[in-house]
Structures are given as C-alpha cells and as structure tokens.
Amino acid sequence: MTINELAVGTLLKKGGFIDTVMSIDIEIQSWRAELDRPIENGGLGVLGVEGVNGTFTSRDQLIQVVTSIIYTCSAGHAAVNFKQYDEYAFPINYPSKLRGKPPSDKRSLSERDVLQAIQDRSDQYQLLTIAKILSEHSFGKALRKFEINYICEPKALEIRDYSIREILGVMAIRHGKITSERSMFRVLRRYRLTRGQSQHSLEEIIQGILLELSASGENAGYRQMRQRLLINHGLAATFEMVRLILGLIDPQGVALMQAGRLRRRIYINNGPNFAIHFDKLKPYGLSIHGAVDGFSRRVLWLKCCDSNKKPMYISSFYLDCIREINGIPVQVYGDGGTENSIVRDAQMALRWTDADQYQGILSFVYVSSNRNVRIERFWRSLREMCGNVWMNHFKDMSDFGLLDTSDSVHLECIRYSFLPVISKDLNEVCNIWNTHRVRRNNRISCPAGKPEVLFFQPEVYSARDCKISLVDNRELHDVEREYSQRPPELGVSQEFLTIARAAVEDLNLQYQPRNREEGTKLFAAITINIERLV
C-alpha cells in the first residue's frame, strides 16, 4: 500500500466507511455507477473502475478509486502539464510536426535534412506560446501557498523576511555557525518555513493595523506598517494588502505621507564604522540620545534619560558601542556642545597613535545639525514612528492643564511615569529600523539593504568594516572608570523616587505603566498627591 492509499484509507476509516455500511450507501454506489457508465448515457465513461457488477463491495476498492483520482488530478496532472514548455521549447527535442514526407528507408540523414523537416519559425512561435500557456499554474493558490497561514512563531516570521544568503551571513558572523545553502534549504523544508504569499486573515491584519495606528504608528508608511505587523504582532501580510488597507482606513495619513518630498546632498561613506553620527533631543524633560552608523544606517544606541547636558552619560553610550563592535570608529560626528567634550577627548585619545589620515584630532568632527545628515534623517523617522505621538500627547496634557513644563516636579514625574513605556517604544523602533530594508537611492553612494546586514556583512556589498581594532583594553577600562556614568534607571533623583514610591504604595497604583493611558493616570495621581503634601 502506498502512502497516498494509507492516508486515504485512514480518512475513510475515520469517516465510518466499513464494508457493511458501504454496501448499502446509496450515494457512494450511485457515484460508482456513474463513473463507468457510458458518456452517451450520462456517465463519465471511465474504464477499469474497481468493483463488481457496477458496485463497490469492499472499502479497499473505494480506497483504490479515490487514491487514483487524487493522484490523477494532482501529481499526474502536474507531471504532464507543467513540463510541456520544457519539452517543446527546443524544437529538435520534441517537434510538434514535421514538414515533407517521413523517411521510407534507413539511409543516414544529414543535419540539413533534419532542419528542413522541422517546422518554420512562425509555427515554432505559435507552439511556444501554446506550450507556455499550458505550463502555467492556475490562478488559484499553488501547493504550499495556503489560504490560512500556519506559521505564527514570531522568530519564524522574521526569518522568512530574510534572504537565504542573509541568514547564512548572520549565522556565520554573529553566531559562528557555518553551513551551506543546501543545508539551510533542508532545515527550512523540515520546519515548513516557506516564502509563500500566505498571510493571516483580513480581520487579523486590519485589527493589527488599527492597534498600530492607535499607538505610535499613525505616521508609518505601508512598508513600515508591514514590518510592525510582523515584529509586534506576528502577522504576515503582503505589501500590497497593507497599502490598500491603509488607503481605506487612513486616507488622510496616506495623503500626508505622499506629499512629503526632500532634496538631499550626495553622502559618501567607505563602510561600517567609518563614520558614526550622534546627537540628542530633549522634548518635555526627556533626553533622547541616539547614534547611527553612516554606511549601514544601523542605530548604534537610542537611549532616553533625564539629561542632555551631562558628558559622562554620552560617554557611557559611546564606550558601550565601542565594546559592542570591539573596535574604534574612524570618525565621529557630533555638534559643538560641551556635553560632547568627553566623547571628543576619548575618541581623539584612542585614535592618537594610529597612522591613517583621520588619526588624532581629525577623528572627531564638529558639525552643525544641517551637516550631521545621518542622525538628523533618523530623527525624522523617529518622529514618524513614535516621536510625534508622544509629543502630541504631552501637548494635550499641557493644554488641559495637567502638565506644567516650567515645574521641575512635573518634569521628574513625567520621567518616572513615562520613561519605561518610552524606552520600550525606542527599543521597538531600533528593532524595526535595523531590520527594515533601505531602498536604493541614486543620490547616495551607500548600497540598499537591511541595516543589520549592511553593518555586519559589508563584504557582500563590496565594502569593508573600517573599525580600528583595540590594541589594549586597559585604556578603555581607564576611560570608562574615570569619565563615564550610567544615567539613573528611572531618570529621577533619589529624593523624588522615595516620594513617588510612597505615593504608589499609599494610593495602590500600578507600576510600571504599560501604555500612555496608564502612565497619564499615574502622573496625575502622583502630582496631585505631591501638591497635597506641599
């Protein structure tokens, strides 16, 4: 018994098809009689159908017939149909017709005789067209392109968005695991991970988009929205599906996205860690520090803390980045603020003895905001991804009299109430940004691709990692010990932390908040409680 017969037999057995029941089943026996009834009498005229006197007498006969029909309509049809173009595309291999008379004797024929016998060019083009049409798949879903997607594991969905070579590169460079493409295909087949156009139901996709629009994704385009659905909700959807849904749900937002156009100067960068760009923002007492690699556009750090004026905070972010990449960037771009003085001195000191043209004082470059293009461009994307949502929320709090930006207590309470949620959003932004695919742009010299892949596999794009290897880690330890300080976890002073924790305990409040609404309730309760104490 074949595997197909075993599977069909198991299903029929579960359906209650036993010999005694089947012999009196009117529908089954009528179907059997119709199979071999002549066509002129309204039947199908199938020859050789199992059975005795036009009826099924055993379940094995039914299994044999059903298995044969399934095979003929699936594998048998595919074997005959889909290879027609491969057979007929080369006329000498499988000519559809010959010109002239067939040979009548066994004398040898020349190549010219063969070429004169096959059809001319016009007939061949007609044959190719017919064979191509007959070899095409139907308009429905092909095998393994399921209407319902059974791949729901978030990690599996993320892997499906990478090419095979990108997966192999990440495994080799980040995890030290080297394997071949054939082995990777074998693993993907074993776990049924495909790149098919299968996707979740329309209702699930719409629900996910509505959740993102109500959170920090109201300014996201359809490409970023698809990435958000994949990473934040584990939902698979095509770009076209997300684009159409956004056009129906949020037409005003789509129109605003399409209206934005910028002209940029040509940017040139030699490879990862050749130049990193860092800067900071401070809206509503929340200091956001970020850095971007110039070549790959990968976000190197994105942190929210209580101050943008403390050089030792920025120094800790910079030194953590050096530890992560295990090297020193060739150049660092930053503005002329005094808060960047330690980073400037550390970069120059670590690069002082190098022999390249950017060593020493040339390794740190003071630039104004309009020249620090990479990080300024990322700030725009950050505002679109979640920044504007938060700024609008704090503006609403100010308009309703709930927030006073001139009150230092209110600013500390903002950090205590919202910093955990904002930090979570910033981590999501990093994940989405570093795994999205940057489109090709003729105005810049850097290649297109995923920032993670561009950063860790520059050789694929005919570039190289430009970092300067650390010769002695003791210098880094000395700088870190003397000139860096990590910001407080919750961004508030110890005095305010004591008062806030007491208020949370007395009022039986939840901490940490999980979203903006819970953070707003926590902020209002703590500020009112502190005003009563005063």
Number of domains: 4
**Kindly state the mean pLDDT as a whole number?**
81
CATH topology of the largest domain: Nucleotidyltransferase, domain 5
Count of strand segments = 7
Largest sheet data: 5 strands, mixed
Oligomer: single chain
Integer-rounded radius of gyration: 34 Å
Enumerate how many helices there are, as a single number. 22
Distance between the termini: 87 Å
CATH structural class of the largest domain: Alpha Beta
Question: Strands of the biggest beta sheet: in what spatial order?
Answer: 3-2-1-5-6
Low-confidence parts lasting 5 or more residues at pLDDT below 50?
142-147
How would you characterize this protein structure?
It is a single chain. This protein has 534 residues and is mostly helical. It has four domains: 3-81, no CATH class; 84-135, no CATH class; 154-259, no CATH class; 275-384 and 436-483, 2-Layer Sandwich (Nucleotidyltransferase, domain 5), CATH 3.30.420. 52% of the residues lie in helices and 6% in strands. The protein is built from 22 helices and seven strands. A five-stranded mixed β-sheet has the order 3-2-1-5-6, sandwiched between helices. A two-stranded antiparallel sheet has the order 4-7. Strand 1 (275-281) and strand 2 form a beta hairpin. Helix 12 packs across helix 18, helix 18 packs antiparallel against helix 22 (516-533) and helix 21 crosses helix 22 (516-533). The longest helix has 28 residues, at 408-435. It is elongated and about 105 Å long. The model is unreliable at 142-147 (pLDDT under 50).
